[in-house]
Design a protein that fits this description.
Order of helices and strands: HHHHEE
Number of helices: 4
Structural class: mainly alpha
Number of strands: 2
Strand order of the largest sheet: 1-2
Radius of gyration: 23 Å
Shape: elongated
Largest sheet: 2 strands, antiparallel
Length: 101
C-alpha cells in the first residue's frame, strides 16, 4: 500500500510540472502574437483608426474605450494617440479622456 501512495504522489508531481511547462509555453506563444511593427506607416494607420473611433463616438473616450471601438490593442491605441497629439488633433480632458480638437 505504501508504494501506491508514493507512486500516486510522484504522478501528481509530474502532472503539475507538465502543466507548468505547458502554461509557460502558452504564455510565450501569446506574447509572440502581440508584436507591433513600429514604423511610420503602421503607426499612421493606427492613428487613423483612433481618429475614426473618436469621430464616430462624438465624445471624449478613455484609451480602453478607443481601443475597443477601433478594434486594436491598447498599445496600438497609444501609438496612434501619440501621433494625433503631435499633430494637434486631440485634446485631453481632466478625467483622463481624449477628444478631437
Amino acid at each position: 500500500m505504501a508504494e501506491k501512495k508514493s507512486t500516486t504522489k510522484k504522478a501528481a508531481t509530474e502532472n503539475k510540472e507538465t502543466a507548468a511547462k505547458k502554461s509557460t509555453t502558452a504564455a510565450k506563444k501569446a506574447t509572440a502574437k502581440n508584436v507591433i511593427a513600429v514604423n511610420a506607416e503602421n503607426i499612421g494607420f493606427k492613428a487613423g483608426d483612433v481618429y475614426q473611433a473618436l469621430a464616430a463616438a462624438e465624445k471624449a473616450l478613455t484609451v480602453d474605450e478607443i481601443a475597443k471601438a477601433a478594434k486594436i490593442s491598447n498599445e496600438e491605441t497609444l501609438l496612434g494617440l501619440g501621433w494625433l497629439f503631435k499633430e494637434g488633433k486631440l485634446l485631453s480632458t481632466d478625467d483622463n479622456k481624449v477628444v478631437l480638437a
